[in-house]
Amino acid sequence: MTESHGFLDHRLDWWTGDANRTGAFLAIISILALTAALVRSDDRRLWLPALIAYALALIGIDLTASRGSLFGAIVGACVVVAAIGRLAPKRRCTVGVAGAALAALIARAATHGRSSIGYISTDRSVLHRTEQLATFAAMMHDAPEGWQDPGASYTDFYRPASSLTPQHALVSAHLQTLATHATIGRVVYVFAWLAPIVAFFLCAHRHRFAVVQRLFAAIFISSACMWSFNRLDVSSLLAAIALFSGVGLVTMSFMVSRTATLIAIAASLVAAIGIMQLVELVGSKPRERIAISNRFVRPLGALSLDVIVVGGNRDVLGDQWGPVLREAMTRNVERSSIGWAKTLADAADLAQAPTTALVLAGSIEELTSTIDGRSKGLVSVRIAECLERAHLIVLIDPPLPPEEIVRHRSPATALIELRSSGHPVMAELAGQAGWRNYRYIGDLRRHWALPFALFLTSQPLQTILALPPRWSKYPPPAP
C-alpha cells in the first residue's frame, strides 16, 4: 500500500523518469536563472522573472529529494558568484536572495521538512540521509584504517534503531570512497577534488571572466559534482550539456587570452584524475576480510560495551546481524555500543567493564590464535576475566565446546548455543548441567534474528530466557 503526503506520491521525476536526472536538469536551470538575475540586475523586467525561476528550480530540486542535485546547485551558484568579481549593490541584493533560498533548501533537506509540499514517506532511501551525514565523522574516527563495506558497517553499528532499511552504501559516492580508504587516502582524495576548483576560483579572482565563460564554468563544474556525488546513470542530454560546457570553457579561455587560467585548470584536472586513479589502485584499503572495523563503536557517554563479537563473518552472521544484536541484547537500543575482536585475547582488551553479551562466531583457530600463531586456549587469565564479565555468552555453530566455556564463565552468566541448522539450546544458569530447548524453524544463515527470540515471538529477550531475578541486567518484564 502506497502512503503519500501532499500532491505527490513519489519523488519528482518529470521529463526523465528518474529523480536524480530531473534534479540535475533543475540544477542547471537554477544556474542559468541566477546568471541572468546577476547580469541583468538593473533590468526589473528580467531580474524578477529570473529570481522567480531560480526559486522554482530550487523547489523542484527539493521535491526530487536528490542530494547530488542540491550539491550541484550549491556549487554552481558559488562558481557564478565567485567569477563575477566586484559586486554592485544591486547584485549584492541578488546574491543575498539567492543565498537565503539555498539556505532554506538546505535546512529543509536537513530536517526532512518536506511533507507539506509533497514529500513521500514510502521511499525509504531518503528517510535517514541526515543521520548518515551526521554519523559520518564518527565512522571516520572509529576506523582510521577504513571500512571494507561502509554501507554494511553503517547498518550494523550506526543506523538508527527506528530504521528498518539496510544501507548498501553511504549517502554519497564521495563519502563511500572516503570511508573505504585509510587516512592518507582520504587526504589525497579531498585534495584531488579541491585542486581544480581552487585553481578556478583563484584565476577568477585575478581576471574578469566573460558572462558566457562564467556560465560554461558553472555548468561544467556543477555537472561533474552531480555525477560524482551519486554516480548516476547520466543521460545523453546531460552528458552533451556537460561536454559542451567544458569545450566552451576551453574555447573561451583561448579567445580571451587567459592562457594561464586554462593551463592552471587543465593541469589541476589532470592531476586530480591521476591522483584519484592512484588512490583507487594502490590506496590503503582496509585489510579486514569482514565488513566491520577492528575498532569498537562506543557512543558518547557509554561506560562499557553492550556487545562484543569475536571472530565470524557475514556469511555466518547474516546481513542483518548488527541491528538484531542491538535490538535484542543492548540495554539502550538508541545508544548501543558494539565491539568486534579477532580473537578472545583481543576481546579481553575491549572488555574492561561488565559486558552485556559476548558472541563467539569464529572457528577455534580464529578465536584462540595468538600473534605467533600458537593456540592459547582458554587458560589465559585475561580471557577468563573476559568470560566472567559477560552476562550472556552466545556460541555460533559452536566454535568452542560449551563445557569449556562453562568452566570459566560466571555462575550468573547465561549461555546460548546456536547452530546453522538444527535446534539451538540454552544452558541452565547457576552451572547446572541440564539444557533447555525452544522451538526453531528455519536456517540461521537466513534468519539471524532467531537467536534472541525476536524472530520467534517478538517478545523481550528476558521473557524468552526466563532469567532469574539475580540476573539484574534485565529485570523481569511488567505483567
Describe, in plain words, how this protein is organized in 3D:
The protein has 479 residues and is mainly alpha-helical. Among the domains are: 1-127, no CATH class; 307-465. It is 52% helix and 6% strand. It has a seven-stranded mixed sheet, sandwiched between helices. Helix 1 (19-39) packs parallel to helix 3 and helix 1 packs antiparallel against helix 9. Residues 1-7, 113-121, 287-294, 370-377 and 421-479 have low confidence and may be disordered.
Q: Can you give the helix content as a percent range?
A: 40-55%
SS-based structural class?
mainly alpha
Computed over alpha carbons, the radius of gyration is: 28 Å
- Low-confidence segments, ≥5 residues, pLDDT <50? 1-7, 113-121, 287-294, 370-377, 421-479
Gist of the model:
This protein is mostly helical and 479 residues long. It has helices at residues 19-39, 44-64, 67-82, 89-111, 129-142, 150-158, 173-180, 183-206, 211-230, 236-255, 259-282, 314-317, 321-329, 344-350, 364-368, 381-389, 402-406, 454-457, 461-465, and strands spanning 307-310, 338-341, 357-360, 392-396, 414-418, 425-427, 435-437. Helix 8 (183-206) packs antiparallel against helix 11 (259-282).
